[in-house]
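Task card 7
Instruction: Convert sequence to structure tokens.
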Amino acid sequence: MRAWVVRDPGPIDSAPLQLVERPIPVPGPGHVRIRVAVCGVCRTDLHLAEGDLAPHVDGAVPGHEVVGYVDKLGPGSSRFAVGERVGAAWLASTCGVCRFCRRGDENLCLEPGFTGWDVDGGFAEFMVADERFIYALPASLDDETVAPLLCAGIIGYRSLRRTELPRGGQLGLWGFGGSAHLTAQVAIAEGASVHVITRTSGDQELARALGAVSVGGSSDRPPVPLDGAIIFAPVGTLVPEALASLDRGGTLAIAGIHLTDIPTLNYQEHLFEERTLRSVTANTRVDGEEFLRIAERIAIRPTVTMYGFDGVNQALSDLTHDRFSGAAAIRVSGRSPRSD
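Output:
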């Protein structure tokens, strides 16, 4: 099979991902093999390719917004049938026994595994996955629509819940890419007023089209105090700006796995009056299941730029340079029969 691997992390415009031939993987006990149809492109893939996140395995295959069809069952696997459409997301495994797993916080597991970082992901024609950590997908959402939901959507949803936004509250979003433009739709459907701060004109236009009540550039602040806010851009200097925009009792959530350094905070200006700063770490499977149900109910409308399988490096470069709005995904293959 063909697969894109990270050999030597470096600047994305140096094309650090290489296309190689590998044997088609064989699923182990409790696992399934997936013939990949579409794989979304996430900023975490970019961080892995450029070395911001150190690879956990040699020659890792990125990609963790995977839509495909079950192609082969491993021993003891029974949750899905061959031919079923499934989705694989960022969380690939947990230990199930640590104190965090036992209390239902599996996103904080002490020994987690992540798709495209610890195990090979979806920038390949086939991948294997633990059947307990993949999702049945809503039939009403096609492959291109559902792919970005599997990380950008899920992590945005968890970030929204971490803000504890009150009903009808004022929500600020810093950055308006793949995750933010999905989160905005959920928040608006739930009655929030959404305010967007983003630097590119295309993203500003998309924010207005989706119903944001105010849209500003990178040096602007929302016109009203915020009940909650989320930073999607991996830029630590935005943290003081967002905190200063919160109303009393407001909460700021940081959505990304990687963030540049945060400048010194002033207690009176940024945190006093019960303002809260929170990180967001991965997600639970409950988050994913809840979000997919909501996405189907509100008929979520991702904006997705599609690339062919040979265009992985180009897609990541375009992500870096803000050449598209919304999300991006790779068309790997169409639906195909079993290969064994």
